[in-house]
Design a protein that fits this description.
heterodimer; A: mainly alpha; EC 2.7.7.41 (chain B)
Amino acid sequence: EVDLEERLSELDLRNDSDLPDVPPPTDSTPEILKRALSGLSARWKNWWIRGILTLAMISVFFLIIYLGSFMLMLLVLSIQVKCYHEIITIGYRVYHSYDLPWFRSLSWYFLLCVNYFFYGETVADYFATFVQRREQLQFLIRYHRFISFALYLTGFCMFVLSLVKKHYRLQFYMFAWTHVTLLITVTQSHLVIQNLFEGMIWFLVPISSVICNDITAYIFGFFFGRTPLIKLSPKKTWEGFIGGFFSTVVFGFIFSYFLAQHQYFVCPVEYNSETNRFVTECEPSELFQIKKYSVPPLLQAVLGWETVNMYPFQMHSIALSTFASLIGPFGGFFASGFKRAFKIKDFADTIPGHGGIMDRFDCQYLMATFVHVYITSFIRGPNPSKLLKQLLILQPEQQLSVYKTLKSHLVEKGILQPSLKG
Amino acid sequence: NLQESESENKLDGETASDSESKSEFGGSPAVPTSDDTPEVLNRALSNLSSRWKNWWVRGILTLAMITFFFIIIYLGPMVLMTIVMCVQIKCFHEIITIGYNVYHSYDLPWFRTLSWYFLLCVNYFFYGETVTDYFFTLVQREEPLRILSKYHRFISFALYLTGFCMFVLSLVKKHYRLQFYMFGWTHVTLLIVVTQSHLIIHNLFEGMIWFIVPISCVICNDIMAYMFGFFFGRTPLIKLSPKKTWEGFIGGFFATVLFGLLLSYVMSGYRCFTCPVEFNNDTNSFTVDCEPSELFQLQEYNIPLVLQSVVGWKTVQMYPFQIHSIALSTFASLIGPFGGFFASGFKRAFKIKDFANTIPGHGGIMDRFDCQYLMATFVNVYIASFIRGPNPSKLIQQFLTLRPDQQLHIFNTLKAHLVDKGMLGGLEDA
């Protein structure tokens, strides 16, 4: 019996009343707002704060979209670092491990390593022409995996050397916590950036759909909510869930229609080595050209039209919105379960009225991966610039034989005219 | 006193038993040790004292494992792949079982099913990625396989998502924290065990020598470091493993490099070890037949002046691969042990003597494979960085799926590059 008690206590699995050391929630609302709203009751004040902050966040979002792809990349990176920081801080509090030797340096070091690895894999492809010109960069790119692995190994060995007799278990827990957090936050953020490079529309529509689903599910639940959805989040209701689903699909459909018209959103982001900037200019692919679709007889009666002009992308947006409404909430439930498991109200107090960055992004989790998998499976084949990069690394004899194979293939298909001159 | 020290130590997140123990494990171990030795051995060794008996059991089992290793090498790549797969599953099972014991979570609803389900998903994903590359022609022929391979990532992701949603739906009010711990435990274990095993299979397909030499170097380092430590050991190496010594470490390093050189020399002479494993569509079996690459052709090397006086030769005939084997052996001896220290730390952290009792005298499968951890990744990264570039046939396959305008663009860029390098004349040649 004593042994069991001891074991349960060492694992922080004491009964529910035992809270970890959570600092009291700080009110990070700016002074201005407080004074402006001082007249209202506490409940309305909370509403107003949430509302104002929501508008503020959406405005920042629009501003950054206007500023372009590079700023968006920076934004994604900052959010990733902040989410990582929030989750790691929770780990410190749960395990009382502020004083663990080395641990904080190691966590940040691993974050740096994994980011270095991923940026090298993605960014290098897009900046191929930029990289070709500089010798040192070429070396870094060619041996990129080896260098990343060596960096990671250094961190691993430092971890092993930092193991201290009294704190073994704690250190292993934090090591695992760090790795799972990296898996969640860093991979997602890099997939977001890859989606972004495919075309800003692939970045905007999914994120907006998730946000729309959040808001409309809340509104439908507020007005019509009756049947609880899941024990994990008692405020969610089936009415909100279903209402949110339909609104999000409609929203995604309409939003895509507007975005698909502008080259700025639709074209893959490319790096122009002459002007040293990102450009989004291209011939819009057929996904973004209006086509005539026949309305199925069922809807014809409802809508009264026989055909409709739509972008093919809008069909894809239905898939994206459906995922955002049906599976996205599971990311939210996962985060709710996590917060209950570790008895925290919010991930952090960064945004007044909303909690931490992670609180806003929990439903986005999985969305980025879904969009990326969707794009690679259904939209485009392999990445041409990556393919080119690999071709250029081959041995010269291999390049020559590949060249001959490609040429015969292209001539066969009639894409290339056989000619005597190069 | 126990109560006092317990409450003091609670602040550090450890228990009283951590500080009071002088031996490796205080308090009762989570997994009761059972004597797994087969009856035969027990009777044969019944006369010896228990210390010698332990030695003999370990020695016999070591020889048994090495013999088994040789047998499966003889049986070929398919059997090797199957063995790697079984070892992976057993390691996963051992680590997950430790998790159950640590967290008393046998009764958690769904949890065991979910762990095995995630193992299946991740394996499906990795096998799909590898199999598609190596069995390309076979896959293209069969219609269902072709569809499975075309939408492979989507299918794998959908399978994973199902597991994720099941996990969320299975969260039970009283056990949230436990369930999240086990979820994290499962994912870290998958990361460690499954990715390593798939990298091993990649290395295997590169040529059996890339599978055998690294694994043998790690085993050799284990044995040699032990022997050097036994005969000459004096200065302790690391607090984590008190039995390891600097003499063992350094002696093991030199012995392993030498062993690697010799083993590579012997193996480079045989095609069945040096050729990439390929799948023959006509015979529907694996073949290892090829023109050995220049890595495996004898070359004359000049011995650096320093060694000339020692060795007495001016030049030596060696395979270039032997130079690479020095890199592999060095990694196995210097960094490989960190995998062992990691596992030792893990065992101390969770107060277990061994991962399991599968192998008498040695512990679990994971105990034998802890130093192999990282070796497979290193070999894979090494091969990808220094030995071979991307696979040309794979690149051609990818090229064929692009749009015509993309194909033209790549073709023209490649042509310009080749003309630049002088490999293509200005005129088009056949």
